[in-house]
């Protein structure tokens, strides 16, 4: 059986899912959620990628990320997931399922569909009754102008990114 290979592409917007090993709920702990966002922010500054949307669910997270030419999605995933694992695992084992899911955002409609999916994920998983009740999502940034948990990158014109 051949291994699926990832297409390495730059200057693209990706919808990404990272899942915890054995679907364990590492992110029930609020401190672990903070570690995730602090780590993403650190590497965002280091590698100059952008975050346009996010949600952290107890056993996985979704991101919408713009990847510049200086790095690729696989490398970002590797370094961020490794650092998060080191910070929250007492046994120094990975907290992550191997690999990740990614989807290249193709246009404005695709972006809106993925962002809506991210924002409604807490409802789907029974974590909130209203979108504004869940603080670990970019819903707060987009609809309540609340950057207190995590500051997403501003996206002015999607069409210019395709």
What does this structure look like?
The structure is a single chain. This protein has one domain: Transposase IS200-like (Alpha-Beta Plaits), CATH 3.30.70.1290. Helix content is 35%, strand content 17%. The N and C termini lie far apart (34 Å). A hairpin with a 2-residue loop joins strand 2 and strand 3. It is an alpha+beta fold. The protein has a 4-stranded antiparallel sheet, sandwiched between helices.
Structural features:
162 residues, alpha+beta, Alpha-Beta Plaits, 4-stranded antiparallel sheet, 35% helix, 17% strand
Q: Summarize the helix and strand pattern as letters.
A: EHEEHEHH
Beta strand count? 4
* Secondary structure category: alpha+beta
CATH architecture: 2-Layer Sandwich
> How do the strands line up in the largest sheet?
2-3-1-4
CATH superfamily: Transposase IS200-like
- Estimate the global geometry from the Cα principal axes: globular
CATH topology category name: Alpha-Beta Plaits
Number of helices: 4
- Highest CATH level, the class: Alpha Beta
Number of domains: 1
**CA-atom Rg in angstroms:** 15 Å
Strand content: 15-25%
Fraction of helical residues: 25-40%
Largest sheet: 4 strands, antiparallel
Distance between the termini: 34 Å
User: Uncertain runs with pLDDT below 50, 5 residues or more?
Assistant: none
Produce a short descriptive summary.
By secondary structure, the protein is of the alpha+beta class. The protein is built from 4 helices and 4 strands; from the N terminus they run E-H-E-E-H-E-H-H.
């Amino acid at each position: 059986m051949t291994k699926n290979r990832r297409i390495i592409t730059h200057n693209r917007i990706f919808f990404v899912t990272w899942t915890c090993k054995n679907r364990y709920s590492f992110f029930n702990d609020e401190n672990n959620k903070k570690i995730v966002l602090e780590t993403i922010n650190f590497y965002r500054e280091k590698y100059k990628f952008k975050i346009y949307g996010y949600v952290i669910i107890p056993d996985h997270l979704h991101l919408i990320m713009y990847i510049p030419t200086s790095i690729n999605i696989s490398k970002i995933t590797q370094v961020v997931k490794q650092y998060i694992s080191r910070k929250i695992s007492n046994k120094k084992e990975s907290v992550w399922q191997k690999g990740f899911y990614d989807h290249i955002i193709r246009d404005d409609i695709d972006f809106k569909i993925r962002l809506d999916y991210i924002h409604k994920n807490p409802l789907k998983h029974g974590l909130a009754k209203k979108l504004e009740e869940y603080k670990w999502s970019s819903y707060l940034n987009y609809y309540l102008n609340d950057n207190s948990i995590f500051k997403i990158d501003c996206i002015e014109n999607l069409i210019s990114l395709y």
